[in-house]
Every structure is written in C-alpha cells, then in structure tokens.
Amino acid sequence: MKAYVVDKYKKKGALRLAELPDPQVQNGDVLVRVHATAVNLLDSKVRDGEFKIFLPYRPPFVLGHDVAGTVIKVGAGVSRFKVGDEVYARPRDHRVGTFAEFIAIHQDDVATKPRTLTMEDASSIPLVALTAWQALVEVAKVKPGQKVFIQAGSGGVGTIAIQLAKHLGATVATTTSAKNAALVKSLGADVVIDYTSQDFEKVLSGYDVVLNSQDPKTLAKSLNVLKPGGHLVSISGPPDPAFAKDLGLNALLKLVVRLLSRSVRKKATKRGVDYSFLFMRADGRQLEEIAKLIDSGALRPVVDKVFPFNKTPEALAYVETGRAKGKVVIKVL
C-alpha cells in the first residue's frame, strides 16, 4: 500500500510517500480501506517528537489520526462490524497511521459512519469530536444553564465544541478573529470575542467551564474568568498527575509531570477551581453517540479544504499556518 511516513523526528520535516506492506489484521481488528483522512496539529507534534515521552513511535512510522472508509476484512473475534460497512474512527495511540490506503483498527475504536455525511466530512470528525465530548461531557460534565468558554472557536476542536456545548444547554463564549465571527455565531456561540482587539479576561467572568487550547499565558488568564467551583480543562497542557497515573508513567516521569503543572494547579486551588489536562483517547462507543448527534442535526462538520492524497504534505503545511477554519481533509480514494 501507499502511505506517508516519517523517517525521523524533525521540525517541519518532510513526509515521504512510501510503498509499505498491507497492515496485519489482529484479533479484534477490522481492516479499513481509507476513503478520507483529516489533518490535526497533533500530527505535526507527533512528527516533531513533542510527545516522544508519552508516545514513543519508532521511525519510520505513518502519521494520521482520523479516518473514514470501508471495512474490507475482519479479524477473529470481531462482532460489531462486517465487510462492506462504512465506518469512521480515531485509531488508538501506538496504532495510528491513516495517511495511507489501508489501516487495521481495533473494533472498539470504530463506529458506523454518520449516514448523513460524505466520507470526506466524516473523516473530519473523530479526533476533534472525541476531544470535545471527553472535555465537556466526561470531565467537565456540562449541564444546562452553565456558561462555557471555548477558545479558538473557528478551529477544529472549537467548531465542534461550540455546537456540543450548545446541545448540552450551555451559554457559550468563544474567541476568534472578526472575519470568522459569523461562522462561530452560526455554530451557536452567544458571546464572540475578537482576540485581535479584545482581552477575554476583561470581558468574561463567572464561567463554569473553560476549554483551553492555547499557550501558557492564555491558560493563566483563563483561571480568572471562572467562578469558584469552576473547571479549567486544557488540551494543550501542561499534563497533570492524573494523566501521568493513567498512562502508567514511571516515578521520574510522574515527578516531571507534577512539576510541569504545579504552577497552574496551585493557582487553581487558590481560586477554588479545578484543573484537568485532557489527552483524548480513542472510543468507538462515543463516536456512535456523536454520529447520532450528527444525523439528528445537532452537530455538523466544518471543513476548510480538501486535498488529494498526493498533496498530503501540503495539507499538513496548511494546517500548521493556523489559518484553517474547522478541519482540513485528505481524499485518499
């Protein structure tokens, strides 16, 4: 099969198109013919080696964390899917690699593709929707009537998180540029802050939940918009002790993680709010619930551009500019 591989960890490193053996189907796996995949900033970070401590991929490896396609083979023990099923997924860590013609995925990570979406639109959903779901539903437990601040509302996670928060009954604030204000309002944002001319810390107060996806300075300011008992959930770090425990890190790495997040945890405690770091995980059952929301009209994908498979490096470079609205998709088949 053809796939784009990373030969070595390298900042802005080039992806190489390679001919690789077809994936091996293990017990519980489905083999998926990739129709479309999507690009995430996570792909750049994995390529650059930013997560080598937590995700020690051994080069050469294939990038890609989103997929929509067709099941062409099932392994022993597979009960949820059959050949011919149209599916979508975010493969689990250590088994990613959707910038390819085929991928073997454990059935627990896979869900039936939303019937109302094309393959291209469906491929844009898994990683960002699982991130939003796990942040807002699992961790923050957003309830009707609460106030939720979602940063970078026109980005991949932001466009889905706004819609999900509104579906959960929250009042939603977000940041974006003036040119994207209409987009985030159409997704359900009630309060739109132009980050180029406004300081959200001076505009917002008394919020129940903040979903942080930006830099440490923004993280620190986010604490100040929360009311006592509020919850700051960060998907951009720093990792916290709970994350280290869940990952089963050794004592030294647990200490490193504790030190990395000590400042923000101390400030959160002082303000009477909770801090959580979220590194989303694969979950097919959650994707089934998300598909229901999509097919009911509660959520819709936002796709900026679709690139052909032979332009995968250009698609990744475009995402790295930070200008994409929603997701960038790669059409493989």
Structural overview:
It comes from Rhizobium anhuiense. Residues 13-330 form the Enoyl reductase (ER) domain. InterPro entries: ADH-like_N, ER, GroES-like_sf, NAD(P)-bd_dom_sf, YIM1/Zinc_Alcohol_DH_Fams. The protein has 333 residues and is an alpha/beta fold. Helix content is 32%, strand content 26%. It contains 12 helices and 16 strands. Strands 3, 5, 6, 7, 8, 15 and 16 form a 7-stranded mixed β-sheet that branches. Strands 11-10-9-12-13-14 form a 6-stranded parallel β-sheet, with helices on both faces. Helix 3 packs across helix 4. The longest helix is centred in the middle third of the chain and has 14 residues, at 126-139. It is globular, with a radius of gyration of 19 Å. The two termini are 12 Å apart. The model has no long low-confidence stretch (mean pLDDT 96).
Helices, strands, pairings?
Elements: E1 2-6, E2 16-19, E3 29-39, H1 41-48, E4 61-62, E5 67-74, E6 86-89, E7 102-106, E8 110-112, H2 119-123, H3 126-139, E9 147-150, H4 156-167, E10 171-176, H5 181-187, E11 191-194, H6 200-203, E12 207-212, H7 216-223, E13 226-234, H8 241-247, H9 251-260, H10 262-271, E14 274-277, H11 284-296, E15 303-308, H12 312-320, E16 327-331
Parallel strand pairs: 9-10, 9-12, 10-11, 12-13, 13-14, 15-16
Antiparallel strand pairs: 1-2, 1-4, 3-5, 3-7, 3-16, 5-6, 6-8
Helix pairs in contact: 3-4
